[in-house]
């Protein structure tokens, strides 16, 4: 019995891996939702999660943050250059991780989770700087990308 392996397009494989990596945290966040903190169907946070009626990142729950982050990624115009597209998407993904970690620092109580949030912020900022450098080198303006 002979097995024949087909070659997989590296760009297709990279996009598939990136898709799984980006959607997995959303599925995990949905499993971790506490009652009363659900986002509204239009993506806005429920009034129970708003602070003073303000609809900014500080007032959104974790699920709302993930939806906002995924909306930014899915609306991003792709260049067709896998390396550039990866860097742009991961930059947005990392900014979302920082937003969530900052929410943990603001509202979290568990010392282990706040310690992890601090480590995540430091690591993600370092990687964002690397993405920014790569994108600038490849003619992509970071200023044009939404934060």
Description:
It contains 4 helices and no strands. With 147 residues, it is mainly α. The protein has a domain of 88 residues. Helix 3 packs antiparallel against helix 4. The termini are far apart.
Backbone shape: globular
* Mean pLDDT value: 74
Helix content: 55-70%
Number of strands: 0
Strand content: under 5%
Low-confidence stretches: 27-58
Distance separating the two termini: 53 Å
Number of helices: 4
CA-based gyration radius: 18 Å
Largest sheet: none
The ordered string of helix (H) and strand (E) elements is HHHH
Structural class estimated from helices and strands: mainly alpha
InterPro entries: DUF305_CopM-like, Ferritin-like
Domain DUF305: 45-134
Signal peptide: 1-29
Pfam families: DUF305 (PF03713)
Helix and strand layout, with pairings?
Layout: H1 10-31, H2 62-75, H3 82-107, H4 111-137
Protein name: DUF305 domain-containing protein
Keywords: Signal
Domain DUF305: 45-134
Put the structure in a nutshell.
By secondary structure, the chain is mainly α.
Question: Main traits of this protein?
Answer:
mainly alpha; signal; 147 residues
